[in-house]
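Ticket #4471: structure export looks truncated?
Reporter: QA, pipeline team
Priority: medium

Steps to reproduce: submit the single chain below to the structure queue and open the exported record.
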Amino acid sequence: MSFFQESHCESLRAFLDAGYSFRGIAAQYGCDEATVRRFVKRWMPEEHAKRSPLEPSPEPRLLVIDIETMANLVWSWETHGQRFYFGDSQIVKHKRTICFAAKWVGVPNVMFASEFHQGREAMFRAAWDLMNEADAVVGYNSKRFDVKHLAWEFKREGLGPPSHFTHIDLYTVARREWALGSYKLDSLVRRLELGHKQEHEGFGLWLRCEAGDEDAWRQMRAYNVQDVKLTERLFEDCRAWVPLRGVQSQRRLRELVGT
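Actual output as written to the record:
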């Protein structure tokens, strides 16, 4: 969880000026040393630069995250045809994020939160805290989907954007590097023999979750958690393909993924 906000800069600087180490500051606040290091690095880079030659940086924290959403509920004149166009007045209920699963790369535990189990406010606070701690966020089609959906939910909850992180979207890596017949996550991990997505009944599962069906939510959790596990396996399998090779601006990305 996140201990610090930007407003803590002055008090932290006072501790640093008084000669406290990162470990000493962590002891004062009752948090771990890595949390202090990451905050100072992001919000007080000049202070971090003074101390980084003496105190080596901790391993980067890479967060794998995946969300599930509920579809728009709309009024429609037609039930067939190639294309449907809906005006704003036809939308009864806008699509929304209903749950997320996440894990730190290299750490076994997978975290899960949903509007059904924790409520929307607690769910998005948990997601925000995780992303705020991350040096990099790893996902599949996450630039266009997961992170944008979460950013909108953070805005609605009044949380503001989390601290800056490097974004590693494995979908864009796959599209950039490989010629495939299908770029769906399930197709890719099956071809690489990394596993497969959790099977489910289809859209009916989402409808049962919307109705508050506890068994449906158990299935949704399993589906969401499996996507995160598959995404981490794919990341580990293709780490060397993530950075753009030979480009100076990718130095930080290479440091994060360890290639």
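Status: closed, not a bug. The export was complete when the record was re-opened. Leaving a note from the reviewer for reference: The chain has two domains: 6-51, 62-257.
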